[in-house]
Amino acid sequence: MKPTFISAIILLWAISTQAADFVSLFDGQSFAGWHAPDGKKPGAGWKAANGELHLDGTPGGMLLSDKEYTNFELEWEWKVESGGNNGVKYWVTKVGGKEWLGIEYQMIDDSKHPDGLKGGSHVTASIYDIKEPAKDKPLNPPGEWNKSRVVVKDGKIEHFLNGKLVCEADTKSAEWQTRIAASKFKNKVAFAPGHGHIMITDHGDETWYRNIRVREL
Fold first, then answer.
1. If we measure between CA atoms, which residue out of 132, 102, 104, 138 comes closest to residue 119?
2. Chain center to CA of 53
């Protein structure tokens, strides 16, 4: 059956609606939509201006999204200083009533930072300390912008770097449980429960973010 004019209009509407579902998580000039953990204010190390969220290397603390997410697509651009380290976490909850923990998309100088030099699940775009990314990932060097994307749907997670899928996992699989048991999170009860906040971390190094946006799936 050939598509009718009405069905074509509906299809175009659905496509345009899907594209419009992305919501900006950073307005380019304030911390609207974000808060520091445990009722604290964002530290002085964070600066929001001129379309960029900048951690200047002095203490800023972690930033949590006001909203929690389960299935979502998250995009952002970032760069770190030479030798720098940072990350974006998701499904972040307060584990054991003590620590804000979640799955981390690692962002690091692979060639200079001591943690990056460990390789494997400690390099850029890894599922930090759980699964390593593809070795041929398209990574731009420190000081240059990279674009990252995380897609989370029904327990399956995907990490993209500069347009390429470089790491994926199924959090409902036996392999995932094996990897968690071999990671630093093995004794963290209820780690990454399938929902939670998005977190921008502070590892003490200068980092820049821009064009942070998310859509729920």
1. 132
2. 15
